[in-house]
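Researcher: Here's a chain I'd like modeled. Treat it as a single chain, no partners, no ligands.
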Amino acid sequence: MTGKTASDSYRLPDEAKALIRGANFAHLATLMLDGSPQADPVWVDLEGEQIVIGSSASTVKCRNAKRDPRVAVSVVSTDNPYLEAQFRGRVVDVRPDPDLATMDRISRKYTGRAFPFRQSPQRIVMVIEVEWARTAKLPLTHAPDDGLIGTAHNALTDKK
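Model: Modeled as a single isolated chain. Structure tokens:
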């Protein structure tokens, strides 16, 4: 495990950068008005040492981050769900992405194609400055019971 605090010279751990650069799903946690946490699955990318997330300005996560810039992000490897990175930081910039340049770059990483929702209202990019980062790799092998996965998938999609 590795960790870094804001008092260290600022540089994300290489293992964390690799997870963000890969097509690995992340979760962004923001704070609701009452202080309760709210989490969203998101696509992520890096610009230098900062994490970037594209979204529509009207989403709960964007409204929360505008009001309170403190956020947390977790990223889990799709190849090995026991390899993870965790981040705490602040949204330091929210910039418009009207031509979807950033969103297209991120979408191509995950889907191989440009972002399909071209009419999304007020596309923005949230830029997160990381203040703390940690990576971990647990010595486990992911070997779920396929029958249980199928059952959960069927329950979620109403397929039998």
